[in-house]
Write a structure and sequence with these properties.
This protein has 118 residues and is mostly beta strands. It is built from no helices and eleven strands.
Length: 118
């Protein structure tokens, strides 16, 4: 699976941004797609996941209530809509994919930088 992330940029605090991740190379029906981020000096952290086939979503506490993960099957694209952005959300955001049932994320996009100014 090849993943291409886009949509990052500079946004003011309180603003919104939508990230996109387009997948190619394989049918995603048995995959889980996820969004991670890594801030400077911090470890990469999971933000949200979506089961491609059923659209079941999961969010972690740092972003719960502020982000929405979704997918467009026709476009083979997963999105991360982020609202009420804070300076602490500044990070490189990555999309990733793993086969359903596995614990290791095998496939990663190149990352897209989100900078939130105060």
């Amino acid at each position: 699976v090849q993943l291409q992330a886009s949509g990052g940029g500079l946004v003011q605090a309180g603003g919104s941004l939508r990230l996109s991740c387009t997948a190619s190379g394989r049918t995603l029906s048995n995959y889980v797609m996820g969004w991670f981020r890594q801030a400077p000096g911090k470890e990469r952290e999971l933000l949200a996941t979506i089961l491609w086939s059923a659209g079941i979503t999961y969010y972690t506490d740092p972003v719960k209530g502020r982000v929405t993960i979704s997918r467009d099957r026709a476009k083979n694209t997963v999105y991360l809509q982020m609202n009420s952005l804070k300076p602490d959300d500044t990070a490189v955001y990555y999309c990733a994919a793993k086969f359903r049932g596995e614990s290791v994320w095998n496939y990663w996009g190149q990352g897209t930088l989100v900078t939130v100014s105060s």
